[in-house]
């Protein structure tokens, strides 16, 4: 069996989940880690039982045993690391958002399409079996013509003013906080499941906590903040947003995102209403799909290999009643990514579920339009998006 070598750049909060996922595949070796310094890379390499450690991501990319680069650095490094990997002819699995804005994201999409290698963005909620079930039901016309797509993605980790991460620094995260961070997931999921593009948006953004108190020693995302000296930081990006949406076929939509909403841990919800039925999926109850009907009793489909459609069965790994979770869905995405990579990243071999740099660029275009709408005082703005030039 041909083995594939993986190298990871940016060993922070999300990195071990990339490593766990590829180790579950069985034919991928975690060859090396690159960190912000040699010492930090070595520490993480020991922790994750990885043999090679690099203090410079260029050295990791140049390692001939590394065929696939996983980029889990903060957003401001996505462009440089992804471009360097593509230039070296390596497959890239980049965490989201693909870049700081749609201009950078387009540069990456164009470079990825031209390179002919596999390019993936981890919009990992697509990997949930019941998300794929909903997508299939809509694609087969079982939900009828969609009129409304709505939901939310709410978290509470930024509730207290003492919570501070690079995500609130526009130089490291981009001009948006919560929209780029988790709004990007919601918009991607809404387009993926509905099969419809968002064409116009109207938004209102809010900074609920305008001053935060950052620890002198910065903490990894979502970790408990250290005690000791703190400095006041004026926050310019949003921690709450509400957006109205127009889809390409005339359907309407809306969603809210926030990270200052106590009790909401990872509360992503997506509901789609069609003439035939409604479908609702909640990330925190991800083993259930609610099906609402006008002239019959509503029902709940459990994640069960015997109940889901045949094309979804490969994303279910346990019998009904055996709960699967966030890491299983993440692994489903990584498994599809390596299936594509094993086929050389050929366009015709891409699994339909798999999000690429094209999807990362689209999501960045939607987020940019949302920011423009708010900056214009809450005016409708069209999503500006340029289609890719196909590879010769
Ligand atoms: N898919 C998801 O659901 C999901 C979840 C969390 C984070 N993310 C994304 O993953 C990325 C990282 O987020 P995180 O929460 O893990 O952040 P983090 O701050 O915990 O980790 C980032 C890591 O990158 C390292 N780093 C910084 N500069 C570097 C450099 N020059 N070379 C190598 N490493 C360097 C940091 O030291 C840190 O270890 C972000 O883009 C974020 O949006 C995605």
Q: Overview of this structure, please?
A:
The protein contains ten helices and 17 strands. The protein has 392 residues and is an alpha/beta fold. The protein folds into two domains: 126 residues, 3-Layer(aba) Sandwich (Rossmann fold), CATH 3.40.50; 200 residues, Dihydrodipicolinate Reductase, domain 2. The strands form three sheets. It has a nine-stranded mixed sheet with strand order 16-15-14-13-7-12-11-8-17. A hairpin with a 3-residue loop joins strand 13 and strand 14. The protein is globular and about 65 Å long. The two termini are 31 Å apart. The structure holds nicotinamide-adenine-dinucleotide.
Tags for this entry?
alpha/beta; Dihydrodipicolinate Reductase, domain 2; globular; binds nicotinamide-adenine-dinucleotide
The number of distinct helices, counting runs of at least 4 residues, comes to: 10
The SSE string, one letter per element, is EHEHEHEHEHEHEHHEEEEEEEEEHHE
Work out the strand percent: 15-25%
Number of domains: 2
* CATH homologous superfamily placement of the largest domain: Dihydrodipicolinate Reductase, domain 2
What is the CA–CA distance across the termini? 31 Å
Question: What is the rounded Rg?
Answer: 21 Å
Write the layout of secondary structure elements.
Layout: E1 4-9, H1 15-25, E2 28-34, H2 38-47, E3 52-54, H3 57-62, E4 68-71, H4 78-87, E5 91-94, H5 102-115, E6 119-121, H6 129-139, E7 146-154, H7 170-173, H8 178-194, E8 198-206, E9 211-215, E10 230-234, E11 240-247, E12 252-258, E13 267-274, E14 278-282, E15 288-292, E16 299-302, H9 326-342, H10 357-375, E17 381-382
Parallel strand pairs: 1-2, 1-4, 2-3, 4-5, 5-6, 7-12
Antiparallel strand pairs: 7-13, 8-11, 8-17, 9-10, 11-12, 13-14, 14-15, 15-16
Helix pairs in contact: 1-9, 4-5, 5-10, 8-10
Nicotinamide-adenine-dinucleotide is lined by residues 9-14, 34-36, 40, 57, 72-75, 77, 95-96, 122, 124, 181, 220-221.
